[in-house]
What does this fold into?
Amino acid sequence: MRCITHWIDGKPWDASAERRGPVFDPATGEQTGEVAFATAAAIEAAVQAAGRAAPAWREASLSARSRVLFAFRDLVERRKTQVAELVTREHGKVLADALGSVTRGLEVVEFACGLPQLLKGEFSENVSTDVDTWSVRQPLGVCAGITPFNFPVMVPMWMFPVAIACGNTFVLKPSEKDPSASVLLAELFKEAGLPDGVLNVVQGDRVAADAILDHPGVQAVSFVGSTAVARHVYETGTRTGKRVQALGGAKNHMVVLPDADLDLAADAAVSAAYGSAGERCMAISVLVAVGEVAERLLPRIRERIRQLKLGPGLEPASQMGPLVTREHRARVARYVETGVAEGAVLLEDGRPSSVPGHEGGFFLGPCLFDEVEPGMTIYQDEIFGPVLSVVRSPDLEEALALVNRNRYANGVAVFTGDGGAARRFQNEVEVGMVGINVPIPVPMAYYSFGGWKSSLFGDSHVHGREGVHFYTRGKVVTSRWPEPRHRGVDLGFPRAR
It folds into this structure.
C-alpha cells in the first residue's frame, strides 16, 4: 500500500514507526494509500529544520527570494495538470474544478513574486535636528499552516508562498484526507531552488496540529477549517504566544431581488451551490428569494439541477463529483433527513443518486429545499455538501436583517438590476466578502480573503496586503549621525526641535 509521508529538511521522512490513516478514491470508495500521522518527534524535526534554515533565508536578498518564487511558479504552471489530478483522485472534485483551484493558488505565488515592492518601508528625513526615522517590516521566523481537505493546493498556497517571500520558514500540516499534493508542491519548490528546511510538510491528524500549536519554536499559525476548530486553534495558539489567523465556517447567502436577471441568477445559484459538491467555504448554501421571485426562479433552478452530470472527477463529462469520504456523505444525508423532519419542503432529493460502475463511490446528488425557516437545523449549520436552502423574504430590508443576524459572515451575494439597492446592500451587510451579481466573491490574490464574526478569529485576512502584514512585524528606526561635537547630558524627555 502506497504511503504518503512527511517532507522534512528537503527530503521524505522515514515514517515506518508512525500511526497511519487510509486515503481513498472517493469516486470508487476504494482505499488507494496510507498517510503517516506525525508523532511529536516528526513535528520537532520539522520545526527544528525550519529553525535552522530561518537565519540564512531571512538574510537572502529580496531578489534572490523572488527568483526562487518565479521558478516555483513556472514549475507548478507546467505541471498543474499533474497537481490537479492528485487533487481529484483524493478529494473527488472534477478535474476542471481542481485545475481552477491550482490556478487560483498560482495567482498568490505570482503576487508573492512581487513582494519586494510590498515590503518597502517609509522614511522621514529630519524629524528632529539631524535625526531621520524609517520603518521596516521583518520576518517572524518559523510559521505554520493547518489547512482543510476541500482545497489541498489552493489554501496552502494562500499561505506558504507569502510567508516564505517575506523571509520566514514554514511548516505545513495539510488534511489527512488528501495529503499527496502538498508533498508534490514541496518537491517542486526544492527543484525551484528553495533551500532545505524552508518549507516542510508534516502529515497527520489533530495530534500533529496540537503539537504545532504547542511548539514554542513556531511564531505564527494560519488555519482554515470549521468554526469550532478555528476557535480552538486561535485560543490555543494565542495562549502560547503565537500570532494566529484562523478562518472558520460559513453560511453564505445569495439574495435575489425581483428585478434580477433570473437566468443569470439560476445559473449562479446552481454553480455556486453544487460546484465541488458544495465542499467550498464560499459555496452558496442559502438562497434568499425576495418578494414573489421564488415562483419564477425555482423552476429555472430545478431545470438546471436535473441536467447536471454526476460522475467521477477524471471523466470529462462529469460536472459534479463525489463527496470526500463515506462518513461525510452520511453526515450530509442526515442533514437532508433532518430538514424533512423539521418541515422544510424537499424539492430535489439527491440521496438516491448513483453512478453506474461506481456504486461504491461517495456520491450524493444535488438537494434543494424550499420554505426553510431560520430556526431549522439546515439553516443554522454549515452542511458542507450539495444542499441549497431557499428562504423567502418579503423585502430587501428583511433580507438584509436575515443575513446580518446569522453568526457566520464569510461571503454573501446579491442579484439585482437596481444599482441603488446593490449599493445599499454592500454598504449595510455585515459580511467580509460581498458579490454583486457574482455568486462566489473570492478576491484576487492582491486583495485579502476573510470573513467577519464566527468566520474569522484574529484580525488578519489571508494573502494580499494583510497576508504580508501577518507574516511580518514592524520596526521603526530613529537615527542620528552627529558632527563630532556633544551637547551634554539631558535628562529631559526628547523633544522635536
Observations:
- The mean pLDDT is 96.
- Residues 269 and 297 are 10 Å apart (CA to CA).
